[in-house]
UniProtKB/TrEMBL annotation:
<dbReference type="Pfam" id="PF00383">
    <property type="entry name" value="dCMP_cyt_deam_1"/>
</dbReference>
<dbReference type="InterPro" id="IPR016193">
    <property type="entry name" value="Cytidine_deaminase-like"/>
</dbReference>
<dbReference type="InterPro" id="IPR002125">
    <property type="entry name" value="CMP_dCMP_dom"/>
</dbReference>
<dbReference type="GO" id="GO:0006152">
    <property type="term" value="P:purine nucleoside catabolic process"/>
</dbReference>
<feature type="domain" description="CMP/dCMP-type deaminase">
    <location>
        <begin position="36"/>
        <end position="136"/>
    </location>
</feature>
<protein>
    <submittedName>
        <fullName>Cytidine deaminase-like protein</fullName>
    </submittedName>
</protein>
<dbReference type="GO" id="GO:0047974">
    <property type="term" value="F:guanosine deaminase activity"/>
</dbReference>
């Protein structure tokens, strides 16, 4: 490989076009509805003493929920756990037309797992900065990373689409999640 060889989505598509079928864009109503469903999973997770994070896998029609996952613990996050599960269940070709929906912006570990699982789109409601305002500094339940999904996924050989934060739904997710975080932050 020459040093000049471009690591671009165009080059990847030229080599394996079957891995990159066309993706159907979600409407604003479909995005909001998917986040509402994700919030339901998050609410239930909190009743089982889990932290307020949740993710689901949306099918190619942007409406069918194929899989869902709550946060398990500080290593087994909702999004990366879901991405691994998705990769067990479905083919790469199919997953490229699916969407991982999350209440919160996926961290570096989760964003990378989405990439390797070959899921074609990420939708998150609220941003990492918004999470940091809820967890506060020195919160042992979540030493929030200073990182963004786009830092990991943009400029790669796969052009995973990223939608987020979602205006309106971000505030809803923040309000819901703060019921938990306000009991854990230091100030
Ligand atoms: Zn994560």
């Amino acid at each position: 490989m020459s040093a000049e060889a471009a690591l671009t989505p165009e080059a990847a598509r030229a080599v394996a076009p079957e891995l990159f079928p066309e993706r159907k864009s979600p409407t604003k109503a479909q995005i909001d509805a998917a986040i509402e469903k994700c919030l339901d999973i998050q609410r239930r997770a909190v009743t089982f003493q889990k932290r307020p994070f949740a993710a689901l896998l949306l099918g190619p029609d942007n409406e069918t929920v194929l899989l869902s996952h709550q946060s398990v613990d500080q290593v087994n996050h909702a999004e990366s756990s879901l991405a691994r599960l998705a990769y067990c269940h479905y083919t790469k070709e199919y997953l490229w037309t699916c969407t991982l929906v999350s209440t919160w912006e996926p961290c570096a570990m989760c964003s990378a797992t989405v990439y390797w699982a070959h899921i074609g789109r990420v939708i998150y409601a609220a941003s990492n900065e918004q999470l940091a305002t809820l967890t506060g500094p020195g919160n042992k339940d979540n030493f929030t990373m200073n990182w963004h999904t786009r830092d990991v996924l943009l400029g790669q050989q796969k052009d995973v689409e990223i939608i987020g934060p979602v205006e309106g739904m971000d505030k809803v997710v923040m309000e819901e999640s703060d019921v938990y975080w306000k009991t854990t932050r230091k100030s």
